[in-house]
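Researcher: I'm comparing several assemblies side by side, and this is the next one on my list. It has 616 residues spread over two chains. Same procedure as the others: predict the full complex and return the structure.
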Amino acid sequence: MSAMWTAPAQSAGVRPSQPPAGPPLRGRRGRRARLRVIGAGLSKHTALIALSAMFALPLVWMVGTSFKTAAQALQLPVAWLPHPFLWSNYPDLFASLPYFRFFWNTFLYAAVTIVGVLASSSLVAYGFSRLRWPGRDAVFYVMLMTLILPFACTLIPLFVMYKRFGWIGTYLPLEVPTFFGSSVFSTFLLRQFFMTIPQSLSEAARIDGASEFYIYSRIILPLAKPALASVILFQFVYCWNDYLGPLVYISNTNSYPLSLGLALILGDYTTNWAWVMAGATAATAPIVILFFLTQRTFIQGITVTGQKG
Amino acid sequence: MQMTAPAVRAFRSPRARRLRTGLLFVSPWVVGYCAFYLYPFLATLYYSFTSFTGIGNPVFTGLANYDGLLHDAMFRTAVFNTVYYTAIEVPFSTVAALGLALLLNMNVRGQAIYRTLFYIPSIVPVVASSLIFVWIFQPSFGIVNDLLSDVHINGPDWFFSIAWSKPTFILLGLWGLGQPMVIYLAALQGVPRDLYEVAELEGAGPWQRLRHVTIPMISPVILFNVILSLVVSIQYFTQAQVIESPPGSPGNSTMFYITYYYQQAFQFLHLGYASAMAFLLFVGVLIVTVVLLRTSSRWVYYEGEQR
C-alpha cells in the first residue's frame, strides 16, 4: 500500500516502456520475430484505438449535437459536423431554465458536505488506524458492513424522522449525516492512507507529551494532504452526481441541484435534442475539466480505496 | 459515588485509557451509525410488520406484507428484472474491466491516454450519461441505428422495446467501467515482476501466466470489486428512473426492484409494504455476499497465508 503513495508514477501513471530483453534479433529468423513483435504492437493499438473510439463516441456525439440546430439534430443520414455551428443553444438553455441556480445549489450542497466529511471522516479514520484499542477491528468491520446495507433499508424511517424535524425540502437530510462519518468511503480512504504513515512519528510525539488530538491535527493531517484532496474531489463528484438523495428530499424546483434540473429537460424539451445535449454538456464539462486538472489525485484516490485493507 | 480501588485501577489502566481515546475519535461515526443506520434499520424491520402511511401510527399486521409480496406478480417481475440485469452486468463489466486493464498493462505506449479515455465516462454525471444514451439509442434519429442501417441492420427500439430495454441499460452500465478498470490496472502493476520471470523460466505460456500468476495475485481485489458492484447493481435505479417514463415501462420490462420499492413507498405511501421489500432486499444482499465470501477461499489467494 505504501508503495502506491510514495511512488505514484509507478502505480498510477505512465510507466517508462521497457525495451524487450534478450539478445538483439538478427538474420532472417530475427526479422520475422521482429515483424511479429511489431505486428503484436499494431494489433494491440488497433484494438485499443477501436475501443477508445467506442468509449469516446457518446461524448463526442453529445458535444457535436449541442452545437446543431434542432432540425439538423434530426437529420438523416446523421451529420457528423454541426452546420451551421450554433452557439445559441447554451445561452437559450440558460435563459429558459434556472441553470445557474441549479449550479449554485449543487455547489452549496457539495461545500457543506465536504466540510462535514473532512471533519468527521478524518477523526474516525484516525481512530481506526493510528490508535490501538480493544475492539477496534470489530467496530471497523461493523462500519464496513454498512457498505453493503441497501439504502432502502434505512430510507423510510429516516424520511419519517426528518419530516418530524421539518427538514423535508431542505438539504439538511443530505448534509447533517456527513458530519457523523456517514461517508464510509472517505473514512476508508483516509484510514488506508494514515496506515502508511510511520508509527514512529506518533511515538516520538507521545514521548514529548503531545496529546492524541495534537498529533492528529498537527502531525498526521498535514502529512495527509494528498489523501484529503482525494476526499474533497470524490465528495464533490458525489454531490454533483447525486440524484437519488435530492429526488427524495427536495421538491421545490428552485432548490433543485443540477442532477434533478437536468432530468427536467428530458421531459420538457424532448423534441429539441440539441438543447438536451447542451444541457448534458454543461453538466459534464465542469467535472471532466476538474478531472483533467487533478488527474493524479483522482487516480491515487481510487487506487488506494480499491485495494484490500 | 465512590469507586472501589480495583475499579479505579481498571478505569485508569492503560488499556482503558486507550479504549477511551479510541472511542472518542470514532465517536462521530458511532453516533451517526446509531442515528442513521442502526435505528432506521430496526425501524424498517418493525414497519415491515405493519400497515403504515407515514401519518399516524403504524398498525401491526403481522406477516401480511410478506404474504402480500408472495402473491404480488409485479414484485416477481421486479425481482426477475433485477436478477437479469445483475447476472449479466456484473460478470460482463468485471471481465471487460479486467480485460482492458490487462491490455493496458502490456507496456503499451500512451497507456495514460488510453486509461484517461476509458475512465472519463465513469465520471460523467449519471443523469447526463442517461440523456446521452437515450439520444444515441433513439430509435429513429439516433446515431446507433443510423450506423446499423449502413450495414443493413434494422436497429431495435432499444430503451423503448420490451426485449431490448434491459440489454441497453447493461450497455450503459458497461460504458462506466472505468472505475474498476483503474483499480485492476493498479493491482496488476503491483504484481511482482520476478513471479513472471520464474513462470517464464518454468516454461509457462501467456495463458498459463495469466491463469496461475496474474489472476491469483489480484484475486482479493477482484473479490472486493465484485461484491461492491453486485451491491450497486442490485440497487439499480437512477438511470431507469431518468430514462423511462412512466418508470418501469415499456411493459414493466424496466421495473427494477428499487423502482418498485420507490413506487410503493413514495407514490402509494405503502410504507409497511415497501419496508418488507427493503428487508427482503437486505436478506438477498446478505446471502449473496456471504456465499461469495465463503466460496472465495477456493479462488482468492491471500499472500502469506497457507492455502
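Model: For your comparison table: Chain A has a mean pLDDT of 85.
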